[in-house]
Amino acid sequence: MMMGYKLKTTALAFVAFFCATIAIGQSTRADRILEDFYHQPDKILVAAHRAAHQNFAENSIAALEESIRLEVDIVELDVRMTNDSVLVILHDRTVDRTTNGEGKLSEMTFGEARSLRLLHQDQPTEQVIPTLDEVLPIAKDKILIDIDFKANSKEALVKTVELIKKYGMEHQIIFFLYDYKLAPVLHSICPELIIMPRAYKKKDVNNILDWDYIKIIHVDESFYKERLMKKIVDSNVRVWINALGKYDNMEKEEQNSGYSKLFSKKYINVIQTDRPQELIDYLNVTLN
């Protein structure tokens, strides 16, 4: 009888191990990024600002797909709402800079906005303004999305969270907040979201660290202090800083000049850039 029990226990243990092995084998790329995000603070994550738009229109489906192809960790997308309450991906309040049209998005119907063509290097493309409903399933399981929420209404916030839940992507979304005091409100609405508040000064950082559900803080370089960044990282929270402008421009002028200067600052472990391919190449060379 005891031998039979041991055999049964061994068999169950083998089945459990086999199932666990299969589960590990079926992990998605997004799962692996999340593993790094939460458990590998030395792993520097790359975020593509308005998606990988060097060769494609910014905030376009083509730029999102390029971000995935490049194996960027995080894609930053700007969410706004049309006059008839459709959530779309667009950075500016108006369509003037990024499309072949003119006018405020908030005064346009989705049909009117959709009739426009996105620009790349001031030339019209075949790309149109995408909806949030379109980009989420493309990114699902492949890349994290940093939502730069520019819709600024409760209706838009509720609709955004509903869409995220529709695709079961709560864990895959980094939700950027310009006002960190809204973090508890958003957390109560959807606790699974990764909330990224922006800190404008040291006091903001100290206040944000009081919330144990915050795992990443957007830090302005203007108040970077090594001791403060160490405090953030020691709290098991990531430090997000932008390479946009200054460091990206240096890199454009002279290879490795911008990123080597940026990484002279310690404890930064998420970098947002307009040049994701160059940053990935730099990290692959310097970290290997």
TrEMBL record:
Cellular component terms (Gene Ontology): plasma membrane
One term of GO molecular function: glycerophosphodiester phosphodiesterase activity
Signal sequence coordinates: 1-25
The GP-PDE domain, residue ranges: 44-283
Keywords: Signal
InterPro entries: GP_PDE_dom, PLC-like_Pdiesterase_TIM-brl
GO biological process: ethanolamine metabolic process; N-acylethanolamine metabolic process; phospholipid metabolic process
Zinc listed as a keyword: no
Keyword Signal recorded: yes
CDD domains from the UniProt entry: GDPD_AtGDE_like (cd08566)
TM stretches of this protein: none
This protein's name: Glycerophosphodiester phosphodiesterase family protein
